[in-house]
């Protein structure tokens, strides 16, 4: 998993599409590990919306727990104005899986991942 995070930084990924694909791989792996169903397309739409709303600046920002509440709040507000909760639902699955992964890792492993 750590090798995919290197790609998120751009060294092995030449553009935003490649970085998004790398992030999808990381999060999909976490979803599989914890048995959480989240389609890559839904995940991509949720993260793209967070970028559009300027809640995150980089794709890798979603891996940091300190931004999760802010992302959730922004997508909840976006849901109220758009009448579509698809992004919020996908984001909820992402946070759930990341929280589980966070609680199962040692501090050293977390530094390696994030």
The average pLDDT value, as a whole number, equals: 77
Strand content range: under 5%
Order of helices and strands: HHHHHH
* Helix/strand/pairing category: mainly alpha
Number of strands: 0
Rg result: 13 Å
Q: Residue share in helices? A: over 70%
What's the helix count? 6
Q: Could you list the spans in which at least 5 consecutive residues all have pLDDT below 50?
A: 1-13
Measured distance between first and last alpha carbons: 10 Å
Query: How would you describe the shape?
Result: globular
Characterize the largest beta sheet: strand count, sense, and whether it forms a barrel: none
Domain Retroviral Gag polyprotein M: 21-102
Protein name: Retroviral Gag polyprotein M domain-containing protein
InterPro entries: Gag_M (IPR004028), Matrix_HIV/RSV_N (IPR012344), Retrovr_matrix (IPR010999)
Organism: Hirundo rustica rustica
Layout of secondary structure:
Elements: H1 2-8, H2 16-34, H3 40-52, H4 68-82, H5 86-104, H6 107-113
Helix pairs in contact: 1-2, 2-5, 3-5, 4-5
Q: Can you describe this structure?
A:
The protein is an all-alpha fold and 114 residues long. The chain has a domain of 68 residues. Helix content is 70%, strand content 0%. The N terminus is likely disordered.
Quick summary:
Helix content is 70%, strand content 0%. With 114 residues, it is mainly α. It has a domain at 38-105.
Question: Which tags fit this structure?
Answer:
114 residues, 6 helices, globular, Gag_M
């Amino acid at each position: 998993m750590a090798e995919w995070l290197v790609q998120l930084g751009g060294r092995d990924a030449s553009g935003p599409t490649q970085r998004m694909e790398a992030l999808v791989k990381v999060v999909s792996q976490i979803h599989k590990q914890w048995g959480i169903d989240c389609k890559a397309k839904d995940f991509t739409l949720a993260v793209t919306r967070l970028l559009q709303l300027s809640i995150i600046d980089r794709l890798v920002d979603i891996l940091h727990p300190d931004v999760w509440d802010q992302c959730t709040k922004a997508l909840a507000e976006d849901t109220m104005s758009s009448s579509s909760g698809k992004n919020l639902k996908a984001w909820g699955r992402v946070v759930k899986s990341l929280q589980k992964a966070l609680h199962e890792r040692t501090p050293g492993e977390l530094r390696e991942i994030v």
